[in-house]
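FORM 7B: Structural annotation worksheet

SECTION A. Query
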Amino acid sequence: MTIFGRYLSRQFFGPFFFGLGLFAVIVFLVDVFDKINRLAASEASGILIVEYLALTIPYWSVRIIPMATLLATLFTVNGFVRSGEYVAVQASGFEPTRFFRPILGFAAVISLFAFTAQETVLPAAFSRAQALWREAIHPEWKWDVFYDAVLTPGPTQFLSASVFHVREGHIQRAILDDYSNNILSRQIDAKNARWDGAIGRWVFEDGVIKNFDQAGALQSMESFDRLESDLMASPRMIVPTKKKPDEMSILEAHTEAKRLRSLGRSAREVLTAMHQKIAYPLTNIILCLMGIPIALRLRHSPPPVAFAAALVVSFVYLWCIEFSWYLGKSGRVAPLLAAWFPNVSFGAGAAYLYKRID
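SECTION B. Predicted structure
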């Protein structure tokens, strides 16, 4: 790195780390206040709550890195212009675009760092945080009711539930399928199923039990009013948990999308998230590219104006990303287009403004 580049780096990374810490604290506190009632009412220990809050920090930090990059760009360029150093650099023979290349290089390094964190630290930390939230802080089994759920109490068992009341241990229209060598061997089809804690088993009521031969053909069928099954997995053990895209790396999201499609289910949400994981780190470069001409137009403005501009532009950009995410998730837009449209549109605008720097 040249002497000029090292000098710029000191001017750039100071505001960057300041903005990263400030924005992370703001977003973190907003998230905490949003959940404060559930945290206060939780029966979890203080240590688990602190661990959960600490594990959410990497997620929010990665999400607000583009905001910190834009703030650092605005502060760096605005400071050079206001101090007269920008004019001096031009007078010494530097072209304006050459002057800003190191700043774009810093944004590229930040993008690489954000991508690495997104694929390593973030999924592990976020997955652990979600597990603490679901199992200890705000247990799903106490609150959730699942409709049309397919549960997996064992490696060769599938339990279909029309309505699953976890806390009560009650299933309406329960169908238990037992498989042997990938062939259905037995099926219990009941109007209701209840968990009997005294015997540690599920009791099926008012149904029919069907037995199948090795070819999968119906062999026998018998009705029953009450059947104590051999299913001993408690309601809490069979609660269906859905892994969120933020808990996955790109490779894991790709694998999950293939699995969902093989089951005939929609993979739009996972595919949109997968493409966004590739596109999002590049947001740092685009906002940096956009921040340079904005800073030149705010050359006579005080630093608070640059800070406000960073907030406005960042939130508009992040809003567009979230809006595109919902379009891709709902199927209104193809996942690839939904993930890349904000980058393409803002990137085109940033490139146009950057080329007009005089």
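SECTION C. Observations
The chain is about 60% helix and 20% strand. The first strand starts at residue 145 and ends at 154.

SECTION D. Sign-off
Analyst initials: ____
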